[in-house]
């Protein structure tokens, strides 16, 4: 069982609101990731980080932003939520050492923007 | 471009039978592959991985086969159980420190 946590698990919010999705891991992993996933569909990488103060955009364009001030914490923020942001957001982390590249996932946050 | 895909969106098997879930990838430079299981309402869970210098790897009730010649990956589940019902994703990684690229999932349903 991976020690990676996401809050909230479910969020229903109105258009225009600012939201922050929290992700924390207690495994000391350097690399962290945010994916967006529509029901039953593949995962799309939207942000990742190699370590503290490192953030990179992923393959899927996203209006969200991330920060990495602490190793264990990688929050994702939407400044102004829109219905098109409705999706599931998955956080993951991995070691950065040769031979162990498995990404461990949190339970996800299901976001519904009205 | 790089892509990872699965041949079937759904697979239905009888409890106790063996299941085979397939995946095709297009990037011949990919050197690492992972299978994930995702149950409803949960995040993906690691099942098994394989590196490109291997063609087979076995775990508990699961086997991953890699055919680099035809860029094909498969997951075999022995004696499939109701608890195996989930969506299964394959993912590939092209180089050290590179990002994982996920394919479309295959939904496995196990009939009692």
Q: Proportion of β residues of chain A?
A: 35-45%
Q: From the alpha-carbon coordinates, what is the Rg of chain B to the nearest angstrom?
A: 13 Å
Q: CATH superfamily membership of chain B, which one?
A: Immunoglobulins
How many E strands of chain B? 11
Q: Biggest sheet of chain B, open or closed, and with what strands and sense? A: 6 strands, mixed
How is the quaternary structure best described? heterodimer
CATH topology title of chain B: Immunoglobulin-like
What's the number of helices of chain A? 0
Tell me how many strands of chain A there are. 11
Shape annotation of chain B:
globular
Which spans of chain A have pLDDT < 50 for at least 5 consecutive residues? none
Q: What's the end-to-end separation of chain B, in Å?
A: 41 Å
Task: Report the span from N to C terminus of chain A.
Answer: 34 Å
The CATH architecture of chain A can be named as Sandwich
Structural class of chain A: mainly beta
CATH architecture of chain B: Sandwich
Count of distinct structural domains of chain A: 1
Average of per-residue pLDDT values of chain B: 89
């Amino acid at each position: 069982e991976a020690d990676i946590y996401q809050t909230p698990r479910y969020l229903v919010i109105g258009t225009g609101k600012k939201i922050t999705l929290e992700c924390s891991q207690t495994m000391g992993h350097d690399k962290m990731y945010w994916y967006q996933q529509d029901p039953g569909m593949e995962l799309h990488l939207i942000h990742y980080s190699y370590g503290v103060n490192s953030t990179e955009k992923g393959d899927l364009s996203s209006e969200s932003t991330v920060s990495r001030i602490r190793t264990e914490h990688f929050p994702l923020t939407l400044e102004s939520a829109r219905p098109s942001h409705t999706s599931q957001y998955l956080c993951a982390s991995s070691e950065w050492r040769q031979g162990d590249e498995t990404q461990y996932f949190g339970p996800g946050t299901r976001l519904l923007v009205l | 471009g790089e892509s990872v895909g699965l041949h079937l969106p759904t697979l239905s098997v009888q409890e106790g039978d063996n299941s085979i879930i397939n995946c095709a990838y297009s990037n011949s430079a990919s050197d690492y592959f992972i299978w994930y299981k995702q149950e409803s309402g949960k995040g993906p869970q690691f099942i098994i991985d394989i590196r490109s210098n291997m063609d087979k790897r076995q775990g508990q009730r699961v086997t991953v086969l890699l055919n680099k010649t035809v860029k094909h990956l498969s997951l075999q589940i022995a004696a499939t159980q109701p608890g195996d019902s989930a969506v299964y994703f394959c993912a590939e990684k092209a180089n050290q420190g590179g990002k994982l690229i996920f394919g479309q999932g295959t939904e496995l349903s196990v009939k009692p």
